[in-house]
Write a structure and sequence with these properties.
Number of helices of chain A: 12
Largest sheet of chain B: none
Chains: A mainly alpha, B mainly alpha, C alpha/beta
CATH class of chain A: Mainly Alpha
Number of domains of chain A: 1
Number of strands of chain A: 0
Radius of gyration of chain A: 22 Å
Number of helices of chain B: 13
Order of helices and strands of chain B: HHHHHHHHHHHHH
CATH topology of the domain at 100-262 in chain B: MetI-like fold
Largest sheet of chain A: none
Number of strands of chain B: 0
Largest interface: A-B, 37 and 44 residues
Radius of gyration of chain B: 25 Å
CATH architecture of chain A: Orthogonal Bundle
CATH class of the domain at 100-262 in chain B: Mainly Alpha
Structural class of chain B: mainly alpha
CATH superfamily of the domain at 100-262 in chain B: MetI-like
Distance between the termini of chain A: 18 Å
Oligomer: heterotrimer
Distance between the termini of chain B: 5 Å
Shape of chain A: elongated
CATH topology of chain A: MetI-like fold
Chain lengths: ~270, ~325, ~270
């Protein structure tokens, strides 16, 4: 598995890019040249210079530092959203697949309704209901996405429930739950990894969109979507401020999308040979 | 056939009830007391407990949940969605109707763009698979899916309106105002549909009927257009149809970028103003649109496809 | 006189790692009014051979050798002239009748489009010829069948319609690519009878591809046995049965010997007559 991963150039490249970005975000205080919140009104809209490598924004804040600090909410929230989604989805999927009966019936009906609802509008509705804040954005995104994962995991459980090794384990008396989980996890893990990495890209766009509209991360905090919102107002005088965060989002989301495709190749050798 | 349509219509009813119930629960989950809000809306200077109790009785808030839901539902069916919290002189229905035409115009223009661009591009990408055209289009599609719609809007506004000074930056009025928002809204859908049509056609090309058409010596053009394209359109038609309500709801972000006075702008400002009845009705409207369009295009598809037609009969 | 003569035909799949051979140096010829059976298990390259000279392979395959059809080398012909040959001078019957017709068009429409491409007939002529063909294929209510969609007909019916389309324009070469594989036993029998009729009635050369020894014994005069893209055995039908050289052929024959005993008797009777 590791061998195949190391031979897949795209997989290695995208994973290292994402890790690099994450590390930069984690070590932001040591890497960023300036304080992202310190304003320097005299030097506003400054061009590229040694002090401000990417120039400054409308309040004279260092754009590069804001970009580096912005990794934390942008990437962090997206990853958090996906973790929440997978946990909730996995829990519901396992419950439905394992217990069957009316529990499954109820969960799957809810999943069907969730999947038939327009997700874009639901995000706004949930944010409206809970109020504008960062954690509500995450709740809203988890709320509209978990159903996909629940359905996928339930299908996985169903496939494995009646497989020979589970029947065998029942015969020799090993706890069925333990065996099921042990076989289930690796077989679903690849699907899950692919879907999740594609969806991190989706979450980044979604969260930054909400921040852009002022419904997510609020103004002084450097988040890429919120930065674009500020940049919108000074578009005519300082377009750099708008282009840098945008390109950053595109690169990061592309990296996750490519990573999803590459992981699919690495984890599922059948696809490659075809 | 008639029976199938009736059956399909009947199955939509529980789903619609479900959606309406979710919307009803939604407004009852808000932290503030509706009676208190109603008093504030009426600009009663001092809100006493007696006054609240009075309004509760008046609004029927003391009745059981289910009764209140049914009353609300009946009112909704009559077109009465309550009044705006923010501006008590206006009804919710009136607010939505005021903003609806602008959104419909934007969604309509985007839909036309989606069809006009994605059909031919998807077709040629499939026909000339792996050619330079296909490669370039696939590259563009890949980048497009990673671009947030609001940023595309900002880029277009900056390049076309500010740098080149060709079109107005924001607002509405003439058709010139429509171009940039429509391009922005349609961009991601165009990418999705190019991919859908391309992959669907490639899938169809592997089918036996295409081999047999070749065996019979039919000209390529006829095989591509009469057989492959038509077959893939049959599978894409529901997705294309469902893009209409998606476009209507997908305008939220773009409307805000371009200050387009439609439902999206209304929705966002209502969120900021905590104008819950407006949000509730907006969600209800979109939910109902989704169900209706799904129903409509399912029926259309079954009418157009001889295999389904037989099953249905 | 041979209708088609194939010499040293090679087909390779182009992959990233280079050429992957599928058909290796295949040579054979078929005379007018003769039926050549190509026998082999799935994946042995028998369909590929035929698709290669009929121009039905896409760019991912490399084809070399010669395939002379009525004096023209098919492998040197342009795509367009091959298309004009297909469906008129070279026709084919395929394996899965249920999936070979476009589900969205009526049978009549699909028959008509074939004739419209290859002939100058007007609408009325096309219709009367279509009805003729269906009648010749012993299909009841031909006028009604023309108005049906493929999914409304049975596999056997569709297979007979396919054979009808194949012989309608009196081709020089008829290729049957596993025409009995996807059909139930009783219909198989009827379909094989149709092929026998074509053989006795027309001066058409036939290539009959199958993995079914029983089926091929009914119609073929001579047999080629293919395995892994190569011809491993060839000769008269009875010769193959008794003196198979290749182990694979022997295996096939032995497995079938019980069933074949009857056919052998029948053949000997025919030979003695």
């Amino acid at each position: 598995m590791l061998q195949r991963f190391l031979h897949h150039k795209t997989a290695v490249a995208t994973v290292s890019l994402v890790l690099l970005v994450a590390l930069i975000g984690i070590f932001a205080p040591w890497i960023a040249p300036n304080d992202p919140l310190a304003t320097d009104i005299i030097n506003k809209f400054a061009p590229y210079s040694a002090e401000y490598p990417l120039g400054t924004d409308n309040l004279g804040r260092c754009l590069l530092s804001r970009m580096i600090y912005g990794i934390r909410p942008t990437l962090g929230l997206a990853v958090l959203t996906m973790l929440g989604t997978i946990c909730l989805g996995a829990l519901m999927g396992l419950l439905a697949g394992y217990f069957r009966g009316w529990i499954e019936e109820v969960i799957m009906r809810v999943v069907d309704v969730m999947l038939s609802f327009p997700s874009q509008v639901m995000v706004f509705a949930v944010v409206a209901l809970l109020g504008v804040s960062v954690q509500n954005v995450i709740i809203a995104n988890v709320f509209i996405k978990w159903a996909w994962y629940a359905r996928m995991i339930r299908t996985g459980v169903m496939q494995h429930r009646n497989s020979n090794y589970v029947l065998f384990s029942r015969c020799i008396g090993t706890p069925e739950r333990f065996v099921l989980l042990r076989h289930l996890v690796p077989s679903i893990a690849s699907d899950l990894a692919v879907l999740a990495s594609l969806d991190v890209g989706w979450a980044i766009i979604n969260i930054s969109t909400l921040s852009f509209l002022g419904l997510g991360v609020q103004a002084p905090t450097p988040e890429w979507g919120a930065m674009l919102n500020e940049a919108k107002n000074v578009m005519t005088s300082n377009p750099t401020q708008m282009i840098v965060p945008g390109i950053a989002i595109v690169v990061l989301v592309s990296a996750f999308n490519l990573m999803g495709d590459a992981l699919r190749d690495v984890l599922d050798p059948k696809e490659v040979s075809e | 056939m008639k029976q199938y349509i009736i059956k399909r219509l009947l199955t939509a009813i529980p789903l619609l009830l479900c959606i309406s119930f979710v919307c009803f629960v939604f407004i009852n989950l808000i932290p503030s007391d509706p009676a208190e809000v109603a008093l504030r809306v009426r600009q009663v200077p001092i809100i006493t407990d007696e006054a609240i109790a009075e309004v509760r009785a008046e609004l029927g808030l003391d009745k059981p949940y289910l009764v209140r839901y049914l009353t609300w539902l009946v009112n909704c069916l009559k077109g009465d969605f309550g009044i705006s919290y923010v501006n008590p002189s206006r009804t919710v229905a009136g607010e939505l109707l005021r903003c609806l035409p602008a959104t419909l115009r934007l969604a309509g223009a985007s839909f036309i763009l989606v069809i006009l661009l994605s059909l031919p591009i998807g077709f040629f990408c499939a026909v000339y698979k792996d050619s330079w055209f296909d490669r370039i289009m696939r590259g563009i599609i890949f980048i497009t899916t990673a671009m947030p719609a609001y940023w595309v809007g900002l880029l277009l506004m900056w390049s076309v309106s500010i740098k080149l000074d060709l079109l107005p930056t924001s607002g509405s009025g003439s058709w010139r105002h429509l171009i940039l928002p429509a391009c922005t809204v349609s961009l991601s859908y165009i990418a999705t549909f190019i991919r859908l049509i391309r992959n669907n056609m490639l899938e169809n090309m592997k089918q036996d009927y295409v081999l047999y058409a070749n065996v019979r010596g039919l000209p390529q053009k006829s095989i591509l257009v009469k057989h492959i394209l038509k077959n893939s359109m049959h599978t894409c038609i529901v997705a294309l149809g469902m893009s209409i309500p998606q476009l209507i709801s997908g305008t939220i972000v773009v409307e805000n970028v371009f200050a387009w006075p439609g439902l999206g702008t209304l929705c966002i400002s209502s969120i900021f103003n905590r104008d819950y009845p407006v949000i509730q009705t907006y969600v209800l409207l979109i939910g109902v649109l989704f169900v209706m369009f799904n129903l409509l295009f399912d029926i259309l598809q079954s009418l157009a496809d001889p295999r389904l037609r037989k099953e249905a009969a | 006189m041979s209708v088609i003569e194939v010499r040293d035909l090679c087909v390779s799949l182009k992959t990233k790692k280079g050429l992957h051979p599928i058909v290796k140096n295949v040579s054979f010829s078929v005379n007018q009014g003769e039926c050549l059976g190509i026998l082999g298990e799935s994946g042995s390259g028998k369909s590929m051979t035929v698709k290669a000279f009929a121009g039905l392979l896409d760019k991912s395959f490399q084809v070399s050798g010669q395939a002379v059809f009525n004096g023209r080398d098919l492998l040197k012909e342009s795509k367009e002239s091959l298309r004009r040959l297909r469906g008129r001078q070279i026709t084919m019957v395929l394996q899965n009748p249920m999936t070979c017709f476009d589900p969205l068009y009526r049978i009549g429409n699909q028959m008509a489009e074939t004739f419209a491409v290859h002939t100058q007939w007007d609408k009325a002529q096309i219709r009367s010829r279509s009805l003729d063909i269906l009648e010749r294929m012993q299909i009841k209510d031909p006028a009604e069948v023309l108005e049906k969609y493929p999914h409304q007909l049975s596999g056997g019916m569709l297979q007979r319609i396919m054979i009808g389309i194949a012989i309608a324009l009196e081709p020089d070469l008829l290729i049957a690519d596993e025409p009995t594989t996807a059909i139930d036993a009783i219909t198989q029998f009827e379909i094989l009878q149709e092929f026998q009729k074509i053989k006795s009635g027309h001066q058409t050369a036939m290539l009959f591809i199958t993995h079914d020894l029983g089926a091929v014994s009914k119609v073929a005069d001579r047999i080629l046995v293919m395995s892994n893209g190569e011809i491993v055995d060839k000769g008269e039908f009875s010769h193959i049965l008794h003196h198979a050289i290749d182990p694979y052929t022997k295996l096939l024959v032995e497995k079938r010997s019980a069933v074949m005993a009857r056919y052998r008797l029948a053949l000997q009777k025919e030979a003695s007559q």
